[in-house]
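Researcher: Quick test of sequence recovery. Tokens follow.
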């Protein structure tokens, strides 16, 4: 014993350290191969009581995939998806990480895991050429939900192409139990063409530097969490969302329309806030939100920087099934009201070149894409509209009576009362800023669908209608 400690013992005093306990030498027993999952799924909770050597195998794959209906983009991915595979480890585990770069890749890649304490978060040890594999290890000494991403130059371009994901370091005692867990991660994408422009769209570095994204989406694509890909839950269940933001540029204002977060693990750490409506998720950051679902219907996940949601794609659905509770909510829940409004900007004479339809089949297909992006939010995906608010396009007497009048509405907008199928409507439809080709396409699609007349509208038909603001009428 040192003289200093001996003197303290004589005085009956105890030396208390004021430093954080950095003992990370806990016993490691055996080894396991980590279960990785593609979004929106999450690996099962870790039930073992001990720490182990956990082997993580993650492959980089460069692939072309849809970013929106009819729009392809070349994504650079961890595990073949955007975001990358969800990784779940236990606080104190020794992680042996294998990063593999598929031989078909054109670029070298690496990985920076924000859960790593060490140079570059692992990036310095994981630079991997196509057809090669890098191996390094780290100890998961800090619990929390962390982002990982590629950090190969140009770093922003790699992230902007989809190279990000989440790694959860579960506390030693585990996470509190919930009924459903899902993985949702936002990202902003930068394409040469405007939102919804058909065909293959390459990355636009100038837009990325200017922080002017074409798409802001959940899980790698517009509509990735809608329709039959929506998340699901049952009344009475507790839902946990592991939410990340890959960026590379924008901060997310994450909100679920129709719910209040019972718990928010602020920035994915230990601090828990309660009864939260909207929580900020920084680029390169995360959060965990828990909430109990009390009534059935569609809950809508959004970035509450709201034009991103309705015009750039950051929208997802949680479909809740079960009995109604009229005390908690007495109104009627309507599915599909909050669909993407698409990239339609309220202006005219857009000079950007559009895809030309070569056949009637092409015109209908292109028109369907425009309808989904620009019309379905109001008139509904089935064309039935919303009673008292948006008139139906399905089997519409008003629409079928006068195609030239219909062209004028799409071209110039409409304000004032009309009667459709015997019902009165009095609202405002803005001009959508579509080209003559696009107007011909969307109207041909509408006329060919839902029991309408089947009329084919041509760009010449549209050009023959003057660019003026028509008055409403019957």
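Model:
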């Amino acid at each position: 014993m040192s003289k200093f400690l001996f003197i303290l013992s004589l005085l009956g005093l105890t030396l208390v350290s004021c430093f954080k306990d950095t003992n990370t030498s806990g016993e490691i027993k055996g080894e396991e191969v980590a279960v990785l999952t593609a979004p929106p799924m999450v690996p099962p909770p870790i039930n073992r009581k001990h720490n182990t050597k956990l082997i993580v195998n993650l492959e980089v794959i460069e692939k072309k995939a849809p970013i929106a209906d009819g729009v392809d983009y070349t994504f650079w991915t961890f595990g073949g998806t955007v975001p990358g595979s969800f990784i779940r480890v236990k606080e104190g585990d020794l992680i042996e990480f294998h990063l593999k770069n598929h031989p078909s890749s054109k670029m070298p890649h690496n990985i920076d895991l924000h859960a790593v304490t060490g140079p570059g978060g692992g990036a310095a040890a994981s630079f991997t050429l196509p057809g090669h594999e890098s191996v390094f290890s780290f100890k998961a000494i800090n619990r929390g939900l962390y982002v990982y991403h590629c950090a190969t130059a140009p770093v922003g371009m790699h992230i902007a192409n989809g190279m990000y994901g989440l790694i959860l370091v579960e506390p030693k005692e585990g996470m509190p139990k919930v009924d459903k867990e899902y993985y949702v991660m936002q990202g902003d994408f930068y394409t040469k063409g405007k939102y919804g422009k058909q065909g293959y769209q390459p990355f636009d570095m100038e837009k990325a530097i200017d922080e002017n994204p074409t798409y802001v989406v959940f899980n790698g694509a517009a509509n990735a969490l809608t329709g039959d890909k929506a998340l699901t839950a049952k009344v009475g269940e507790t839902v946990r969302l592991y939410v990340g933001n890959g960026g590379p540029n924008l901060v997310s204002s994450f909100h679920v329309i129709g719910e209040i977060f019972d718990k928010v693990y602020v920035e994915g750490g230990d601090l828990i806030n309660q009864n939260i409506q909207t929580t900020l998720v920084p680029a390169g950051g995360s959060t965990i939100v828990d909430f109990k679902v009390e009534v059935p219907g569609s809950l809508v996940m959004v970035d509450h920087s709201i034009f991103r949601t309705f015009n750039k794609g950051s929208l997802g659905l949680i479909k809740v099934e079960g009995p109604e509770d009229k005390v908690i909510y007495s109104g009627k829940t309507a599915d599909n009201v909050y669909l993407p409004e698409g990239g339609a900007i309220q202006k005219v004479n857009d000079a950007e070149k559009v895809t030309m339809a070569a056949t009637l089949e092409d015109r209908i297909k292109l028109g369907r894409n425009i309808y989904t992006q620009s019309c379905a939010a109001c008139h509904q995906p089935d064309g039935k509209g919303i009673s008292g608010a948006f008139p139906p396009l399905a089997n519409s007497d008003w629409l079928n009576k006068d195609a030239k009048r219909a062209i004028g509405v799409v071209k110039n907008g409409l304000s004032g009362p009309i009667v459709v199928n015997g019902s009165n409507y009095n609202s405002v439809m803005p001009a959508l800023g579509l080209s003559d080709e696009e107007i011909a396409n969307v109207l041909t699609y509408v006329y060919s669908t839902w029991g309408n007349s089947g009329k084919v509208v041509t760009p010449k038909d549209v050009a023959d209608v003057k660019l003026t603001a028509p008055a409403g009428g019957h």
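The radius of gyration is 27 Å.
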